[in-house]
User: Fold CopG family transcriptional regulator from Caldimonas mangrovi.
Amino acid sequence: MPARSATSVAAKPLDEKITINLGYVDLGQIDLLVQEGFYANRTDLIRTAIRNQLTAHADVVKQSVARKTLVLGIQHFTADDLRAVQAAGQTLQIRVLGLASIALDVTPELALAAIDSVVVLGALHASPAVKAALASRIR
Assistant:
């Protein structure tokens, strides 16, 4: 089956929350920069720092995406998509850098029949039942 293009799940997907541990000195320096008006808040500084590092390593990311044949962005799979794959006698190898989303109308049985493997660098959104069914195929 030809590669699917990235599609939007909603107008704007929700951000994924992460937790980091920082030393008191680093945290104090961040608070000082916020207090001095360089950043609106801690999150603004951390997002800016992350984006700067991603920009600095953009060529490496592009090369790795191409080498690992990842879809960059958002990829959404509906029950109809998976039934079409199944009807064609094929299975999917989902490989996404970003967000892979499996619709809530996809049953665990359909997911198992249509999805051979899942590699997601970012986030996988699916029902708990589908994630449980695919657990051994998620890498």
Summary: The radius of gyration is 19 Å. The helical segments are 24-35, 42-56, 58-67, 79-87, 108-114, 128-134. Residues 24-56 form one domain. The first helix runs from residue 24 to 35.
